[in-house]
Amino acid sequence: MTDTPLLSIRDLHIEGRAGEAWLPIIKGVDLTLHRGEVLGLIGESGAGKSTLGLAAMGYARDGCRISGGEIVFDGIDLRSASERRKRSLRGRRIAYVAQSAAASFNPAHKLIDQYAEAPLFHEVMTRAQAQSDAVKLYDKMRLPNPAEIGFRYPHQVSGGQLQRAMTAMAMACRPDLIIFDEPTTALDVTTQIEVLAAIRDIVRQFDTAAIYITHDLAVVAQMADRIKILLRGEQVEEADTRTMLAAPRAAYTKSLWAVRSFARALQPPATDAPIVSVRGVTAAYGKTPVLHNVSFDIHAGRTVAVVGESGSGKSTTARVITGLLPPTAGEVLLDGKALPPDYRARSRAQLRQCQMIYQMADTALNPKLPLREIIGRPAEMYLGLKGRALRERVRALLDMIELEPDAYIDRLPGELSGGQKQRIGIARALAADPQVVICDEVTSALDQIVQEGILRLLDKLQGELGLAYMFITHDLATVRAIADDVVVMQHGAIVEQGAKAQVFAPPHAPYTELLLSSVPEMHPDWLSNLLAARQSQT
Amino acid sequence: MHAVLKMIAQRLALGALTLFVVSIVIFGATELLPGDLASAILGQSATPETLAALRAQLGLNDPAPVRYWAWLTGALQGDFGVSLATRRPIADMIEQRLGNTLFLALYAAALAVPLALVLGILAALWRNTIFDRVANAGALSAISFPEFFVAYILVLWLAQSGYFPSMVRISPASSLADKLYMSFLPALTLTLVVTAHMMRMTRAAIINLMASPYIEMARLKGASPLRIVLRHALPNALAPIINVIALNLAYLITGVVVVEVVFVYPGLGQLMVDSVAKRDIAVVQAIALIFASAYVLLNLTADVLSTLTNPRLMKRG
User: Fold this and answer.
1) With an 8 Å Cβ cutoff, is B216 touching chain A?
2) pLDDT lower than 50: segments of chain A
3) pLDDT value at residue A259
4) CATH code of B128's domain
5) Where are any strands of DSSP class E within A339-420?
């Protein structure tokens, strides 16, 4: 009986509605999963990973339909099964863990009620049983205060804790199969480790089979027994984890593996006066202090990477520099002269010098405006360009960001890919001809291949225009690639700063050490070794 | 709970302030009318002497702020003065009428609110089906006709055939069953008029949430469609629904003049219309103030209930 797979998908086709037509999303994928086995599913966004994962539950999102192939779960044909039959499997024998736990928990109910819901209506437990079981699983997932955390509402619990609570919830009926859909993508590296370790333990303990969807190769290397790679709805290759890491066969897989090849040439130490100098800045939101005595410099032609987990004050520092949040103490100097704390008191020339690029290019661009206006607006406002000169400027900017002007100038943001949108964000910042550009997590929402393109572009522009970058990120791989100087922040204060080589070389401040060691490596034993090492220290 | 009590206190203070401003507007508006109370009472045949005597008697020679203060303090104690037309205390005239109006509003609300919620939930559950389309089209037609037209159609169908009376004759002595029977047609008319708005908001608020990740999560747990709508979507959709219900209840109290006139229902709206016709300014002022209070109180209730249904506002941190 051990030979019968738990889940068997043959020649699966899924289509998505685009207006009147149906376009293929999954084009003939096979998948076999045995009991207790963990399969890693890798691909960039739009490759069809989530769609395939949901299809394993016999589920297609609104606007999608399963158009061909077969899906058999433990002898049950999910394509021909009735809705009622499929409902009786979902949550009980196949469970799902979503990418954003914060959005996937219902804000109106307590965690433990949401935990108990599936066991109750599938009639596998009584409420009392489910509640005591929840506390046990919360404990196994290493949630703080497991006896009480369930009685909180989702907004009272942090993102990393919610993700663990969601994994516990998926375990409630002790399913045979769990689909993990990028469960740690939204988390900081330090939080990610805890969630990864907890997920791996619990899956092993209950011998649950799992499909682990991610775009992070290093993460999947820790979690999966086998890895399958998807590209635009088609399978590229599949092998067990160690083989795949050691000897990828397909060209696409090799390009995924090689993506971190980019590294900026080492710059000599800065000798000139800094363009921007942050001096002893302390700031608060209302009465809550968020920044404590933060000081650092940004030099022309150099990149300062500001790293730290979410809530460490990285973006708040950017808000102080741009004048959106006047500090309670300290000052920001531009070219040696103090800037007014509030942006409303700054001159247009001062505002022009410092531009922002945002994390979510999707929401940072007005969807109703063509690129001509999105990029032209700051050029017109700050530089006073009009008519022909303005058109030339917009075209030159599009050239700079490597988008063909004739093909793109009249497009709307909705007609661009994620990476192209971020390029437009860059062009808009450059349109004002600034000296300083603040990049706030500009690559976090992008796939690794696209990320690398954006980093290369930023580096090229810096060389051509002599720009100073303040690069906010929680991704240390990005820091290694592009930074000249590094500022490490925690709880609103700087814990370490200096040239990249100096910060990345031991000895580290304890928090820097924690951050550095938490970055997943492409080695299947990395997580086990790290956990063992941390265990032995305590 | 402390935060909620504080919020209620704040909103009550704000509501009192709103009413104060409204009372100034009401008083000021009647001041702007040509002529004064004395000439309105005595009519065109009055001699200057009798006018002066009446003005002195009514205190009309005092400056406006003094008269406003006297009117406001009286109103706060339930003394709205004396009707110009009947010379009876206005409070006595209004008391019974207000009771009738509230009775009709509650009657209509008791029919309309459950009907609207059930129809809205079912329409969301079976969206884009025949049921959804028929319910939407029916509700839209009902709201599109003028109230008096709906009222006359009902009279034509249900009163002329003798099932229900077309004239409402109720007194404080009538039994509850009698009152319900007598005022069925006006209540039904109002139900038809207000249901559409509430039903469509219920449907839209629920459907708006159906694309949320937590709804997908509920589906992937194997929850049934009815359970998804009732347990996962509805609690998060309550705030907009409650607000629309409050607006419609306010309408049921203050906006039913036409329906009261058609069915000769002895409510506040009719009294207001009569008083305007008779230039009985004191009564109009009193009723306007009561209507404003109804609006303020219902909106306050809606705000508090919306907050109570949202754990993110109830339990911070």
Assistant:
1) yes
2) 1
3) 60
4) 1.10.3720.10
5) 354-357
